Structure formats: structure tokens, C-alpha cells
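Minutes, project check-in

Agenda point 3 was the complex the collaborators sent over. CS summarized: two entities, 588 residues total, and the question is how they sit relative to each other. Sequences were read into the notes so everyone works from the same version.
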Amino acid sequence: MNTEIVVASGKGGTGKTFISSNFSYFLNKKGFNVLAVDADVEAPDLILALGDVKEILYEENFEGQVIDIDYSKCLRCGACVETCRFNALSMSDEGPVVDYNFCEGFGTCALVCPVQAIYLKPAKRGRIFAAISNTGIPVVTGDLDIGEKNSGLLVYRIRELAKEYSFKFNARLIVIDAAPGIGCPVISSLVGARLLVIVVEPTPQSLKGAMRLKELADKLNIQSLAVINKYNLNPSFTRTIVDALNVEILGKIGYDDKVVESYTLMKPILETYPESKISSNLETIFKRILERLSL
Amino acid sequence: MKIVAVGGGKGGTGKTAIAVSIAKMFAIKRKILLVDLDVDNPCTYTLLSSKPEIIKEIYAFKPKILEDKCKLCGKCVEYCPVHALVLIPSKKILFIKTLCESCGNCMIVCPEGAIKEDKAVIGWIKEDKMDNLHLIVGEAKPGERKTDEVMTETIEYVEKIAENYELLIFDVPPGTGRGIYDAFKLADLVVTVTEPTMLGFHDLKKLYSLIRSMNKKSIAIINKYGLKGGVQDEQEEFLRNNRVQYEKIPYDEYMVKAYVSGETVVEAYPDSPSARSIKKIVKNLEKIMFRSA
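CS then shared the predicted structure for the full assembly.
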């Protein structure tokens, strides 16, 4: 049985990938077999933060479904147009027309078509792959094609593949770097996970996102812990976060140029500046996470 | 009426701070509607010290199972594309609300008419009016999956009132998916906001493949320009090679200070380097949007 730890934030750009990449690196260094998962399929960057791809182990297309219409059978009755709840169908002189930007591929229209003129067909929406990063940490990630939807389902498939690879690598710990926000992909990252680490920065905007995320985690019965990143941008805001968020704060991390520099080098800061204040704070926080997991 | 969409791919590059600053500057002379489409975590109003009020609830279909009519045949379970319905043999049909995507298949296939149409609030449209600057916010209810729908309904609502304004500014969520596509589709101009980090750069490239495929006119803003250890040189080269016009906002403490206290830099520190750059960008946008025609 493996343990999934999700790193998420509600608001974008607070340091999810920063924490996930360094946490994975830390665990690996400590001798835990760890697998890193990038669930931010619209902007998957985790593998870059772990040194980029060394070797692709497996790759598959992620396919969704869309509908197609057989106009030779279609009676132009309009039942499909009326049934679709997503306004993906409209009636023209030639018959129903599909707007693929809105089609979810659930096939409700196909169910009501009296002459079976509508059928579902697979459509590529992105890809999923497992790779070894240059830090030696295995990563399972996905990449949603531009302008596509359905990233919740893609996240679900990524987690399935991650479980498969966690057995291959004997990885008991899976670190999931979630997408920003609190929508479908984030829900799919959280469901069934052991722990949520909320990354919050000292701004009202980030706190609001963190509170919305906490509300979601509570609904899903997932324990939340928080890390304050870039706390030195606004040290006095720490108190506000502690009072408003109502979760255990694992620690605070400062911000300086070394963070950006490490990203540019595509290495975790624990590798580039292991002696820095940021690195020692990160290690303290990561040790606390392990304690909370009784590991 | 013109529409500018501000997007960025990666989160935290400064989309909202810049969209709100631009809106404030334009509102000095023009009637502006700022539209917050980051329905997962809308942040425009904290930067405007605004408390927008709910003007519309957004609903989605949820099935209501009539247990006295249900014969436990399991057809609804079979046709639910997202496994939100589970048959507990000889007991009941279990409905898992957090999985439901509101398609209505279950109601259609039920042979007993045991599933009725019900609905649940999945988000809200909120509004505030501050002199020349009006704000519309789409906000998803935590725990609901259909955040795309909240965005779509917000855009539909905005299209109805758009003609009352000279300029609409869309604050777009992070990412490169469907929601971003919808917002960009309506825009006369896409303003991308990036930062000179590897990750910002990586996401910017993905975003530009979307913008190119849509044939959209665009301006890029490299925010936090001069960030130590950053990749601004590579980023500029990429933008030049792709013939994308770009502007820079220098990385200074004022932008950060304003942001952490929930203000815009153009108001809090109007003479700071970052505020001056934003004003220059607004002048440029004014030219592109209103004088080129």
C-alpha cells in the first residue's frame, strides 16, 4: 500500500512545484523510494524542476470521446439538440451541428437519438508518460493538448499509471504536484490521498485560495497541513494565515534569488544550495511531514 | 467595444495584478468592465478592495433518485460516464455528488422514471460597480467539478452587457486548456504575462502554440524582468523569433509590496519603476485598441 501526498495551493504560483520537487528529492536522498507525479496537466513543469527527462519509460496517448453524426441516418428530429446540457449541439438546415469546444463526450445525445445516428469515437486529448528524471527520481506526468478539456479524467489516469509504476520502483511514497485552483483536476488529485500539503504565500489572494482548498479537502475528508512560502515578502501576514486557515503550519520558507537560480539550473535547491537557510527550513518541514505520516 | 484577455499559462506570473492595474488606468478615461474568469480562485476583488455581491447563482443538473420507484436494475450505473452512481446490490443506488458531471444520462436511461431532475449550485456570478470600473466575477463553489461551466456562464452573462462598455478586460485563469481557449476566442487582443523563470518560459511556449493556432493578435509582458538568475535573454529571443511584440515590467520591491497588501502598484507606488512600465503598456494598449481602427 503506498501513500499519496498531494501538494496544492488554490492560487497559482505560490510554489507547489518548488515544494514537490524538493520534497521528492529529499525523500529520495533519505533512502525512501519515491515517485513524483505531475498532475498539473495544463502546465506540467515538475520534471523540469527535477532536472528534465533522462529516459522515457512508457508513453501513451490520453483519449477522450467525442460524438459524431451519421447524417444518412439522421431524421433531423432535434432530440439530441434538446438533450445536450452543454449547448454543444445546434440545429442547422443540414441537421444537427456539433461544437466540439463544448462536447463533453458523455453521449447523452446518442442515448436519445431514435435512429442511432449518433455514435461516440475516441479523440486524442493529450498524453501520459512515465520517465526517469536526471535527479534519478521517477516521474509520472501528463500533458493536456492545448485548448482541451477533461483534465480531471487525465489526472485520474496519471494516478493509475503512477500506482503501477510505484510497484515497479517499489515506491511507498507518491508525491503529487497538483494543478492550481480547486476544480475538477484538483479534486481528482485529492480523492483518496493520504495528506494534503497546502502551499500558501503571505498575500490575501493566496490565503483566499488556500481557504477554498481547505474547504474542499474537508469535504473530501483529507487531512491538511500548510507551508508558508516566501514568508519574508510580508512577515506580519503569518499571523493572519495562522488565524484564518486553521490548519497546522509546518513551517515558513523565505524567498531569495537562489530559488530562481536553481530553477534555471533545473535542480532542486536542496541540491544546488544544500547549506542555505531555505534548504534547512525545507528539511525541517519535510521531516515534520514524515513524522505526521509516522514514517 | 473591445476585449483584452490577460493570460499567462503558469500561475503566479502576475496576470491578475497586471489586469487590475490596466483596468484601473483605463478607467480614468473610459468605461471599463473587468471580468474575473479565474473561477477557481478569483482574486481581482481583493486587489480592488471590493466586495462584489452575488447577482446570479449558477446551477447544474444533479439526479434525484426516488427510492420507492427504483427497482435497482443498475442501468443508470452502467450509463454514468464518470462512475458517480454505484449499485449496492439489493439495497440502493448510491450517488457520489463530487463525481457527477451533470450530463443527465442516468435520468434518460432509467426505465422506471425513478430519477428526477434536480439541481445544485455550482457557483456564482458576482458584481461590483466602482465609478467607471465595473467588475464581474465568476466564482466556483468549492467541491464542484464543473468549473468550466461557471466560466462559460460568466462569459455568456458578460456578452449580454458588453455593449455598455468601451473595453472589457478578461482576467484568465492559469493553464492552457479549454477555459483559456474560450476567453481568448472573444478577445481582440491577448496579453500574455510571463516571468523569466524556466517554468514560466516553458508554459509560455505552450501558450503561444495555442495563440498561434487561434490566429490571435497578442502582446507579451515579461513581468519580474531582471530577476536574478532568470532566463530573460532566452525568453526575449523566443519572442523575437516568433515576432511577438513584448513589453517588460522590471522586478522591483514595489510591485511585491503592493500585491502583498492587496493593492495595485499603479495606485500605491505610482512613481515606482514597475508602475511606470505598466503606464507605458497602457498607453500602448490604448493605441492598439482604439486608434488603429
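Noted in discussion: The CA atoms of residues 9 and 230 of chain B lie 18 Å apart.
Follow-up: revisit at the next meeting once the mutant set is ready.
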